[in-house]
Structures are given as structure tokens and as C-alpha cells.
Amino acid sequence: MSPDRVTSDPAPARLSVGVVSAGRVGTALGEALERVGHVVFGCAAVSDASRRRAETRLPDAEIMPATDVARRSELLILAVPDQELDALVRGLARTDAVSPGTLVLHTSGANGVGILAPLAGRGVVTMAVHPAMTFSGKPEDTDRLATACFGITAADEIGVAIAQGLVLEIGGEPVGVPEEARTLYHAALAHGSNHLVTLVVDALDALRDALAHEELPGQQPVEQRPGGVAERVLAPLLSAALDNVLRSGQGALTGPVARGDGATVSRHLDALTDLDPRIAAGYRAMSLRTAERADAGDDVMNVLRDNE
């Protein structure tokens, strides 16, 4: 499959796709490509969980070694964890497993296209195509790709065009990321998504404890598990806060820190420290950053620094 055919046909060419490996990202992307007519013929899956995932999500794909997947692919997707990508690429290069003319993309956010250099040449087109999405390993992952942005880095215009075409085919939005900015791009996404999970889990722990001691007449005891009252209390608040900040930026800041209410912040810290000093430490760190953004004044800053 030549790059010219991929970019010049009125309709995108149907590709024979191989996936290494059958993790959460690889199976979702493979499934999304199958939905638009590409054929995932094979995937590499080592662990029992990966094999089960491949059998469920990509039932027509044969499970085979990574080198065999690479040799038979027109489009080779390398969806291994970031820290495994370099060794995989070098191993495929040593065995000449990637045929001339193959399209090769990886899904790592932390790496650009440079890490694929050992495979480049002989008509091989290399691309970094990272879905800016969190993956649970469940079928809804594939649906979410249709609303996701994809960070694209390629060595040349051909690679950019092919990567953009593949992303647009499955309903995503391609976003160009310069090679030298990949680490900052990935850090921003990790800071926003991963740390949001930690923040919300801490908030849920504190809220469950706050609600565990009093029930309204006839109310069932507060569930100390996911999906309980604490989640129902927080969900609309968090959804509104996220919507507000995406619309208004820093102007969405509310609450005692933004208002400069040092007395309330101090009481918060005392209560959280009694519950779990680690949650209190996280609250203090985020409050300091919030106070800096909001220019909250000395009252709040003094409380936060006194608690360092």
C-alpha cells in the first residue's frame, strides 16, 4: 500500500491493520478503524487480560507475535506503554519485520515521531497519533474516540496527511503537535486528567465521611462505595465546574480561596487534617495555586503558608 494511494483516492483505501498490543488503547483504535471499513487481521497479546480483550473487541483478529503482525501490516499500530515503545521499535528494526511501504504509527503521548526513526526509510511512513482520551478497557472507549482530539506529529507532509485522514475517518479531530513540544503536551494532559482523578477521589473520601453520621428520616445509610450519595452530590457540581472553566477559564474560580476567606480555608485544613493529613496536604497545595491565580491576598496566603 503506497502513501500516494492512501491520499489520492476519492475514498480512503481499506487497509490491512495490525495492532501491537491488545491493550485498552490498541483495541479501541482497532475497533474504531474496523467500524469504518479497515480490516484488523492480527494483534499481539501477551497477557491473559490482553488475550481476552482481543477476543472480545477484535474477534476476527488472529493473535500472533509482534514480528508477524508487523510483517503482514499495511498499517501497523504500536499501542504499547510509553516505556516499552523504544525497545519494541528497535527490536522490529533489527529483525526487518516492517516491510517497505508500511504505514507505522504509535499512540504514545509522551513521544514524538523521532522514536520511530529506526523504522523509517524504504517508503515507510512514520506517525505519532495520540488520542487525548482516558481509557477504561470497556466498549465505550471506542465510542469516545469519535469525540476525541488526537495529537499528531509526523516527519513530513505525507505522514501528516495520512494521520489526519485516519483520525477524521473515525470521527476524531486531528491537532498538530510539534516534535519538540510532545513532552509538554503530554504533561498538560496528564496534569489535567490524572490529577483530576486523584482530586475527585480525595473529595469523595472526605464527603463520604461527612455524610456518614447523619441521615434524614427514612433515608438509607450513606453508601461507602462508588456510586453512592457522595457521587450524586458531587457529580452536578463537578460537571458545572468543568463546563464553566472550559467556557470562562480562570473566571470560573469560586469558593473561599478566590474570595480571600482565610478563616474558612483554615477550618477546612483542620477538618481535612483530622480525617487524613494526605488529603489536607493536597488541598493546601491546590489552594496555594488557586490563591496565586486568583490573587487572593495575604489573609489566605498566610493561612496556607502557616500550614506548610
Automatic annotation (TrEMBL):
Residues 6-131 form the Putative oxidoreductase/dehydrogenase Rossmann-like domain. This is Short-subunit dehydrogenase-like oxidoreductase (DUF2520 family). Pfam families: DUF2520 (PF10728), Rossmann-like (PF10727). Residues 149-290 form the DUF2520 domain. Gene3D superfamilies: NAD(P)-binding Rossmann-like Domain, ProC-like, C-terminal domain.
